[in-house]
Structures are given as structure tokens and as C-alpha cells.
């Protein structure tokens, strides 16, 4: 039986990945500081521990695996990573995890090693043009946040260990992954989940607040397509960082109107100051199309509707417990 080690298996992407691997017949060991919050833990083994601690990491990576997925990081949405209040923790925590993982994998040579990077490694473009967010535009480096700087530094760590320690590395720059079972409250939620929550809690005629003027653009990647892109990368020989993201770009205003439309409510929008991030962000998929003959095509509205319905069910469940 093929064996996979999923670091960060208690998180959003990690829990979905664990479930997918199990359905495909893999033996999965999961590792995280907590088990999945919104779904059953289906891993064959689960190590509960903090990968910032070297002894925990050494215990977690205990031998040979066909694949090791490194998804563990200190992260969140704009309200967490763009305020500046968590910069030191974001950089130190994630960097320590990656240093521990690389030290241990260099020792054991456990198998194909996946690292989840981020679109936040890219500079903020002054104006939109066709080659924005091509993989090569990461340099000269000017990430949009300390989270982005740590991700870019860690990319270089993994590539350096591939050269010097013989590790077989795959690196994906993930772009705004969303879907059911992602955080939707508590301060670490991302744009789609946060707007869905606000709309669900609002009544007809209410007003919701959105950070920024609403003209900032993003592309969002549904979780199922994220996992498909990761799989295609893992079975390929592509050893350089590659974007895995949707090219369907939307303004935050249009996204908000889409979610309001899904709700069927009449809700007004008020724009306020807040940590809105860069003005433009999308995924350029030329490299993944060229090398892997694939890029995401799942319509944004379909994924947003599924996410909205899932968050609505969670809020309804809370109301039933606490009327």
C-alpha cells in the first residue's frame, strides 16, 4: 500500500487531502497541532503535536513514505496577515516548521516532498497586464506581506535542499483556496467565507461592511481543483515552483454581489477601511498548461454556492444549539 505523510492534516486543505488520499487507497499518517475541526479524522494514524518543536517533527517523520505533503503553516485571511499585528509569529512559526521538516527529510530521504507556497510571494503590480503572476515575476522580490516573504524564503529553502541534499521537491503557489470546511469566523477566515458569513447573518434590508472600495481583484481556487492540481504536479517531473490557481478574476464588489444574489436577500454594501491586501491578484496558468496540460476551470459561482450552503448549515446548527 502506498504511504503518505500529511503535515498540517488538521487544516482545511490537509483534511480534504487526507480524505482524497484515503479514497484512492493510500495509507495516511496525519500530523497537526489539532485534528480536523469540521470533519471526521480519517487518517490511519494521527500525530497531535506542534511541528515547531524539533522532537515532534522528528517523531512525526518516522521513515520512508511515497509522498510527504508539507501544508503546515501559521496563516489566515487578510484580517490576520495584513494588519501587521501577527508578522513576527507568522514568519517565525512557519519558518521554524519548514526548517525542522527539511532537517528531518534531508536525514531520512522519505520520498517525494510537496511544499505549499502562496500567491502572496508575488509583488503587487502597478497596473494589470498579461504576464502578471507568471512564475518568473516573483523576482525581483517584493512580496505583499511578511507571510509572503516567509513563503518565498521557504521556497528557496526547499529548492536549496533539493540541490544540496538530494530531496525530490514539488512546490505549488496556491491562489486563494476556498470551499466547505474552511474557517468562516474567528479572525482567520478568508474573503469568500467572511462575506458568506456576513450575508447569512444579515436580514433583508440590512447593510454589511466590506474592507476597501471593492475594486480590488482576486481569483479563487475551489478545494477540489486545488487537490487535482496538486496531484498532477506530484505525478509530474516539474521541479520548479508553479501556480495552482484559477484565472477567473473577480472584483471583491462583484464577489459580494454574487453572494448576495445566492442568498436571495436585499442587502446593501458599505465600504470601510481595512486590511484589503493588494489591488490586483490572479493566477497566470501558462506554465501549468504547458507542463501539465491542465489548469482549473471550475466556475466560481458553483464553488461559492456550495461554500455558502455549508456555512449556512454551520450557522443554523449553532442557532439550534444556542437559540
Report on this model:
The chain has helices spanning 12-23, 54-60, 78-81, 87-108, 146-165, 191-201, 223-234, 252-263, 286-292, 300-321; strands spanning 3-7, 27-32, 45-48, 67-70, 112-118, 169-174, 177-178, 207-211, 217-219, 221-222, 242-244, 249-251, 268-272. The protein has 323 residues and is an alpha/beta fold. The strands form 4 sheets. The protein has a 7-stranded parallel β-sheet with strand order 3-2-1-4-5-6-11, with helices on both faces. A two-stranded parallel ribbon has the order 7-10. Strands 8-13 form a two-stranded parallel ribbon. Helix 1 links the parallel strand 1 (3-7) and strand 2 (27-32). The termini are far apart. The relative contact order is 0.13.
At CATH level 3, the topology of the domain at 3-177 and 222-244 is Rossmann fold
As laid out across the biggest beta sheet, the strand order is 3-2-1-4-5-6-11
Distance between the termini: 48 Å
* Broad shape: globular
CATH architectural type of the domain at 3-177 and 222-244: 3-Layer(aba) Sandwich
* Total of DSSP H or I helical runs spanning 4+ residues: 10
Mean pLDDT: 92
Q: How many distinct beta strands?
A: 13
Which structural class best describes the helix and strand composition? Answer: alpha/beta
CATH class wording of the domain at 3-177 and 222-244: Alpha Beta
Helical coverage, percent range: 25-40%
Taking pLDDT < 50 over at least 5 consecutive residues as the criterion, the unreliable ranges are none
Proportion of beta-strand residues: 15-25%
Oligomeric state of this protein: single chain
What is the CATH superfamily classification of the domain at 3-177 and 222-244?
A: NAD(P)-binding Rossmann-like Domain
Evaluate the radius of gyration: 19 Å
Describe the sheet with the most strands: 7 strands, parallel
Give the ordered list of helices and strands.
EHEEHEHHEHEEHEEEHEEHEHH
Amino acid at each position: 500500500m502506498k504511504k503518505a505523510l500529511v503535515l498540517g492534516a488538521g487544516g482545511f486543505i490537509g483534511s480534504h487531502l487526507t480524505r482524497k488520499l484515503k479514497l484512492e487507497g493510500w495509507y495516511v499518517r496525519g500530523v497537526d497541532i489539532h485534528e480536523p475541526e469540521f470533519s471526521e479524522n480519517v487518517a490511519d494514524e494521527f500525530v497531535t503535536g506542534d511541528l515547531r518543536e524539533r522532537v515532534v517533527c522528528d517523531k512525526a517523520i518516522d521513515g520512508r513514505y511515497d509522498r510527504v505533503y508539507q501544508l503546515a503553516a501559521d496563516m489566515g485571511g487578510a484580517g490576520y496577515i495584513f494588519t501587521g499585528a501577527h508578522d513576527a509569529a507568522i514568519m517565525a512559526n512557519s519558518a521554524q516548521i519548514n526548517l525542522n521538516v527539511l532537517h528531518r527529510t534531508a536525514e531520512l530521504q522519505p520520498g517525494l516532498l510537496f511544499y505549499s507556497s502562496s500567491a502572496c510571494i508575488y509583488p503587487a503590480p502597478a497596473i494589470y497586464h498579461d504576464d502578471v503572476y507568471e512564475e518568473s515575476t516573483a523576482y525581483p522580490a517584493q512580496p505583499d506581506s511578511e507571510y509572503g516573504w516567509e513563503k518565498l524564503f521557504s521556497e528557496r529553502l526547499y529548492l536549496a535542499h533539493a540541490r544540496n541534499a538530494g530531496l525530490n521537491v514539488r512546490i505549488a503557489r496556491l491562489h486563494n483556496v476556498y470551499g466547505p470546511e474552511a474557517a468562516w469566523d474567528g479572525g482567520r477566515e478568508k474573503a469568500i467565507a467572511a462575506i458568506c458569513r456576513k450575508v447569512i447573518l444579515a436580514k433583508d434590508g440590512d447593510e454589511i461592511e466590506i474592507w476597501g472600495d471593492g475594486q480590488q481583484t482576486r481569483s479563487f481556487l475551489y478545494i477540489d481543483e486545488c487537490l487535482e492540481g496538486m496531484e498532477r504536479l506530484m505525478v509530474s517531473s516539474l521541479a520548479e515552483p508553479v501556480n495552482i490557481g484559477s484565472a477567473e478574476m473577480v472584483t471583491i464588489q462583484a464577489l459580494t454581489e454574487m453572494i448576495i444574489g445566492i442568498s436571495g436577500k436585499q442587502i446593501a454594501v458599505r465600504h470601510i477601511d481595512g486590511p484589503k491586501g493588494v489591488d490586483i491578484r490572479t493566477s497566470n496558468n501558462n506554465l501549468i498548461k504547458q507542463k501539465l496540460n491542465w489548469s482549473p476551470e471550475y466556475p466560481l459561482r458553483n464553488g461559492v454556492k456550495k461554500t455558502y450552503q455549508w456555512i449556512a448549515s454551520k450557522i443554523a446548527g449553532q442557532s439550534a444549539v444556542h437559540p
